[in-house]
Amino acid sequence: MTKRSDCPISNVLDHVGDKWSLLIIRDLMFFGKHSYSELQNSDEKMATNILSSRLEKLEKEGLIHKQKDEQDKRKKVYRLTEAGVDMLPIMLEMIMWSAKHAPETNIPNQLVSRVHTDRAGLIQELTEQIHQQP
Amino acid sequence: MTKRSDCPISNVLDHVGDKWSLLIIRDLMFFGKHSYSELQNSDEKMATNILSSRLEKLEKEGLIHKQKDEQDKRKKVYRLTEAGVDMLPIMLEMIMWSAKHAPETNIPNQLVSRVHTDRAGLIQELTEQIHQQP
DNA sequence: CATTTAACTTTTAAAATGCAAGTTAAATTA
DNA sequence: TAATTTAACTTGCATTTTAAAAGTTAAATG
Question: Which residues are in the HTH hxlR-type domain (chains A, B) (predicted)?
Fold first, then answer.
């Protein structure tokens, strides 16, 4: 997506304004997924060519990076960059929106109350967890 | 967009996971735009048929509603519902992301510092402003 | 050595997007 | 009051993107 304007919101959408990119980031962020095949097995079942093109785009835009797996040379390890990890507050607010307006979704309950009582601490804690992922 | 999974993030993307929907919400929220022609004149220049189909989708999904303009019978007035207004924290975090990672965009500066010092107060204040829009 | 696994790529049909032009009702201007 | 303009769309069509299925390649496993 080429830059459409100087708006900061439009800018974020230029990176992740589609149905799939944020789900990839979600899986890397919350579910400890780091390989292509793990990413392919999400509930939403994204097509493999779309996954491939999104990974390429996200890497080119600096939200994720790809390393070789030294144990298994067939594998690639996908990880969030700092810019990718910094999508966390956006994701949290999406969860909060659904907690209010789509409570039938799978809301992680302690997370919602924690956002209200200790937002900054929660974000710091989750950020550390993301960095400590194997 | 039909429901893809029970994930709260996926759910939000089912509503606004495209390049345009959140820009419409942005214009209604921050720029006091309320008519079709105003929405059409954003910097990003969305095509009129896309604007039309997104307005229809957002209305069907309960994020905006459409009223008749009693002064000018040609006009329709578009407004955010509560669910639409509640997208505000997501938008704020997008601005914050760009403030950090795309500082060349037009960041409203006092807003960024205010998010750090008084997030809850800011959101309440902006929410009230949105409701008071003419 | 044969099979499986991981990470893709390719093909092709269907759907969405973008652009230009057209339509309709209401308001404004001459 | 007739002609023009404005607002909110809709339509048609070419281009792009997505989705689904099948195929490829290198590395690991039995």
Answer: 7-106
